[in-house]
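Let's practice the habit of predicting before peeking. Look at the sequence and jot down your guess about where helices and strands might fall. Then scroll down.
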Amino acid sequence: MLLRYSYRLDPWPRHRAGLAKAFGCARVVFNDGLAARQEARLAGQPYITDGELSARLTAAKATPERAWLNEVSAVVLQQAQADLNTACRNYFASLSGKRKGPRIGPPKFRSRKDTRQAIRFTANCRFKVLPNGKLRLPKIGDVPVRWSRPLPSQASSVTVIRDSAGLYFASFVVQAGPGALPEADPVIGIDLGLTHFAVLSDGRKITSPRFLRRAETKLRRTQRALSRKQKGSRNRDKARVMVARAHARVADARRDFCHQLSTALIRENQAVAVEDLAVNGLARTHMAKSVHDAGWSAFVAMLEYKARLYGREFHRIGRFEPTSRICSACGANDGPKPLHVRQWQCGGCGAQLDRDVNAAVNVAKAAGLAVTACRAQVRPGSALAQRGEAGTHPKPRRKAA
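Done guessing? Here is the structure:
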């Protein structure tokens, strides 16, 4: 499977100038191609194909108006056109219904004021990682890289990104083979929430870190400082970078938490089951900020690809499964319960149930996993005897005819 490995770059001033030139050239090629297709559509002409667009780029590089496009790698320009072609195909597939998911809009023009700029180098341009650890990019130079871990294999492409905080990153695409872990006996169900980020079917509860809530004071201060700066001034640009870096620290902390927790769960368990939550729907409620702060979608995506990478089983059950209504001990359905009810007693067997742990056990059972409520807060309570028990309610004798 294909994986991305991202590393921080420390470009020197000359590298920053070369990258800025490459960002600008890729943006111009993308916008020229999009403008040509829009003009052809308005004029009633046939759709400009990918090959014709590539031929126009080759001809434009020979003209005096676009001769400066030769100052950057040709692969960067070709990949910008490839991005445009992919965006157009996705738009047409969404219009026709072939593309699943929400309807997407047509491609938009890129701007030099966009907070995120990116260019891509493929193996054709012969980028390489040097023995001294630097990344050699054509017509840019040898850029220092902060290697946090080695690449598992030869990279097929690398994308250089400048984010809204002004930081540079290199994202390598590598082919990673399945690294199967040793067999593990436990199987686990996960119930995601807000008070506890995850409640496991074995009774463990992972507290929600709430990174955004904890950083709100600093974010509020930086946002107020930004609002006081005059628009178009250098001080406003500096304040904007401060806000972007504060948000980047929150996002990095959340991503690191999700990576560590998902890796631990995949290593410890042979099979993992989660519920398919309607995050978009929950994000339109009064809990929107907390839902986005939790990062459920990213966590579930990490669980899924890591399970496939390490040879584990991953199950995603439907969002309409009544996991909070059914007793995990006897299977009785006690109906819906308000959110403030965190513990309840089953009316069928009398078991005292923790709402979240009971839901996690039911998630695993709905996925077909043999899970018991081991160490979970499920204990039998006093209840009336079942009517079918021997000796409790004797059957009435039949009257003689």
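How did you do? The chain has two domains: 2-175, 187-317.
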